[in-house]
């Protein structure tokens, strides 16, 4: 269930309740993780009764899915904004660096982002959301790669884009769990992506 599929609140009070539910779920995920999350604890933290919560969400998976969808779409958005300069900027490396750094910064700035990523990975019910967003992001990135190197086959560009998207997501997950080494890992990630892309994009 996504925000477009669930019952949409028509009044300000209902919209406030939904915002409180989402904020409470994000806080609880950060504090105790997905396995400890329940609709009862979310309702209590949000200051709404359980019937109000169930009016908008049938279970905790629907709540976490909406949180995750928002973060995943934002992640895709910041990447595409930076990569839009591929083929326009004099050096393709700089847009790639900006994209990686923007996604890393989003992880740091967005409350609950790390906990929500962990929930996506630990729940079969939520795993496909991450996969679908990665696939959609790769499909959007592939044309930028072709802009830099038109000689690339479309299927190859799609495979490269999907590899990059999954690599970035996985290594940022690792960096989130290694706080003291996070910045160093993010710089290593930039090198991994740039060195992977170089044989194809420098050929143009």
From TrEMBL:
**Pfam families recorded for this chain?**
TetR_C_15, TetR_N
The record's listing under PROSITE patterns reads: HTH_TETR_2
> Which parts of the sequence belong to the HTH tetR-type domain?
15-75
Reading the lineage from the top rank, the first entry is Bacteria
Q: Does the keyword Electron transport apply?
A: no
Supply the InterPro entries for this chain.
Answer: Homeodomain-like_sf, HTH-type_TetR-like_transc_reg, HTH_TetR, TetR_C_15
Q: List UniProt keywords, sorted A-Z.
A: DNA-binding, Transcription, Transcription regulation
Ranges of the DNA-binding region feature: 38-57
Tell me which Gene3D superfamilies the record gives: Tetracycline Repressor, domain 2
Q: Know the name of this protein?
A: TetR family transcriptional regulator
